[in-house]
Design a protein that fits this description.
Strand order of the largest sheet: 1-2
Mean pLDDT: 86
Radius of gyration: 22 Å
Strand content: under 5%
Helix content: 55-70%
Low-confidence stretches: 1-52
Oligomer: single chain
Number of strands: 2
Length: about 375
């Protein structure tokens, strides 16, 4: 790899995060009705028309910084990145964050060098952002969200636009020493640093070399390496490229799930469909999928409604979990995917509420309160929004 090689190219920092069979199974738009856990526009903040849309907008600058803080917390999880760096990134101050990480890497902190790779790719995405048509986006959101939610969505869209502009400028100022970052990554991987080996494996074209890097990290029980290997094999199986070693997928996802909530969900979806050579077992899968929801894994809530393991729950239980996830999203705990999650929860909750009597809705609300009491703090801590 060179300065213009694989590590510099944006969009390659993470493995494919979703299972192919899950994407293929998603139905069309969900039915709509009323939604629980609706929020009010933040008190004390002036609401004003947004452009020509007629939609009011609340000031969500601080909330959007919280969304970004969660996004970077999740991206840099397990690397021991100082809170001050996360805070700089949440404000879009990429140049300051990069300077701090580079100083740590100069001191021999190998995890800081891995963090530099990830921030570099995030900056690549910021550079590729094109100005959004806010009115057009709001027109779609207004069709899905209650008025108070649309007001917050408008504020988030405005804050996002300002943030992206600032972050793009800060990224342009950031001093990335690409050759040094790559050299350190290769050297650390060769010396057996599991995070560096797992990160480097994403950019290696030779399958045997990539597998060797991941195996070295797995030998040190590094959970993200287990997840990377399991995901790669699962994707290969879904594409019909291999049928070898399929039964290992389940064990690798179990190992990864000890530290990676998304791995628990992928395991649940895999088990529910029998994707790994074992018979489908939706009942056993439910335990793993539900545990991912307890961790606040954003994609667990939609899977719960659309995958076989969720069908083992009652309507009130499903609703309660959607209320839980919606509340978590409104607390900012799903990061910069807030708008997509808000729309998804609105659609899903309306579908599940449709045609149900008041008693069932009351039961679901009470169950949601219990879930929040039991697992809210855990989910918030897991996602860095506690």
């Amino acid at each position: 790899m060179t300065r213009h090689g694989a590590i510099r190219r944006a969009g390659r920092a993470a493995l494919l995060p979703a299972l192919a069979y899950l994407c293929a199974s998603l139905p069309g738009p969900l039915a709509t009705q009323s939604s629980a856990w609706a929020i009010e526009a933040p008190a004390g903040q002036a609401a004003a028309p947004l452009s020509q849309s007629g939609t009011t907008v609340s000031d969500e600058t601080a909330f959007y910084q919280r969304l970004q803080r969660v996004t970077h917390f999740r991206s840099l999880r397990g690397l021991g990145v100082p809170d001050s760096v996360i805070e700089e990134l949440s404000h879009g101050n990429a140049d300051r964050a990069v300077a701090a990480l580079a100083a740590l890497a100069d001191q021999g902190k190998l995890d800081a060098n891995v963090a530099l790779v990830r921030v570099q790719h995030w900056c690549g995405r910021m550079a590729a952002v094109r100005p959004a048509n806010i009115d057009q986006q709001l027109a779609r959101l207004r069709a899905e969200l209650a008025p108070e939610r649309a007001a917050r969505a408008a504020g988030v869209l405005q804050a996002e636009t300002a943030f992206q502009r600032h972050a793009g400028t800060a990224c342009a100022r950031a001093s990335f020493d690409y050759r040094l970052i790559e050299a350190r990554l290769r050297e650390a991987a060769a010396e057996g640093h599991p995070a560096s080996a797992t990160e480097l494996a994403q950019f290696v074209r030779d399958p045997a070399q990539r597998q060797a890097l991941l195996q070295a990290a797995m030998d040190k029980h590094y959970a993200p390496a287990y997840y990377a290997v399991a995901t790669q094999l699962l994707m290969a199986v879904q594409r019909g490229e291999t049928t070898q070693n399929v039964s290992s997928i389940r064990e690798w996802l179990k190992q990864a799930g000890r530290e990676v909530p998304k791995a628990k969900l992928d395991l649940a979806n895999c088990m529910a469909l029998g994707c790994d050579g074992h018979p489908a077992d939706a009942l056993a899968a439910r335990a793993f999928g539900t545990d991912a929801a307890r961790d606040g894994e954003p994609t667990a809530f939609l899977s719960m409604v659309r995958m076989p393991w969720g069908s083992r729950m009652s309507r009130s239980q499903l609703l309660a979990w959607q209320y839980f996830g919606d509340r978590l999203n409104e607390a900012g705990c799903m990061g910069d995917g807030y708008l997509g999650s808000a729309t998804m929860f609105s659609q899903t909750i309306r579908m599940l509420e449709q045609g149900q009597n008041a008693k069932l809705l009351q039961t679901a609300t009470a169950q949601a309160d219990d879930l929040w009491s039991d697992f809210g703090a855990r989910a918030m801590q897991e996602n860095g929004c506690g």
